[in-house]
Amino acid sequence: MHTIPRLRRAPSFLAALLFAPILFGAFSAAPASAATPAQLLADYNAKAGSPGVPARGQQFFTSRHGREWSCSSCHGAAPTQAGKHASTGKPIGALAPAFNAERFADAAKSEKWFRRNCNDVVGRECSAGEKADVLSWLLTLKP
């Protein structure tokens, strides 16, 4: 009769053994969205297989890519100041991280806006290399 209670307890014991590392990892890991501009740049550089080139980033930012807008259409030629959306007129804070501490401080938010804006500007998602180029240029802009 002792074997029946053991068998009943075994699944919960095994479940605890299996799920404890998962639960512990969920509470001890840093949030996935936490980032710094430098960490994001390092990630884009790694994914691209080469470092971002600031001059190429500036060129990408200010040029049109076969679509109606460029990045600078909304963010301004100098992304160190506030801009406004080209069609809605909605204010947009400075894009350069040195002028707006909220920029590129959340990886998920940064990816969301890269995805949306690249679709408007380029008609597709930007590559890791394009993101690295633009972010490397933005990081050179200092007060």
Protein model, in words:
With 143 residues, this protein is mostly helical. Helices cover 54% and strands 3% of the residues. The chain has helices spanning 3-28, 37-48, 54-62, 72-75, 107-121, 128-138; strands at residues 83-84, 91-92. Strands 1-2 form a two-stranded antiparallel ribbon. Helix 3 packs across helix 6 (128-138). The longest helix has 26 residues, at 3-28. The termini are far apart.
Strand order of the largest sheet: 1-2
For the record, give the distance between the C-alpha atoms at the N and C termini, rounded to a whole number. 77 Å
Order of helices and strands: HHHHEEHH
Uncertain runs are 13-31
Round the mean pLDDT to the nearest integer and report it: 84
Content-based structural category:
mainly alpha
Please report which band the strand proportion falls in: under 5%, 5-15%, 15-25%, 25-35%, 35-45% or over 45%: under 5%
Q: What does the radius of gyration come to? A: 23 Å
Number of helices: 6
Number of DSSP-assigned strands: 2
Provide the helix percentage.
40-55%
**Overall 3D form:** globular
Q: Describe the biggest sheet? A: 2 strands, antiparallel
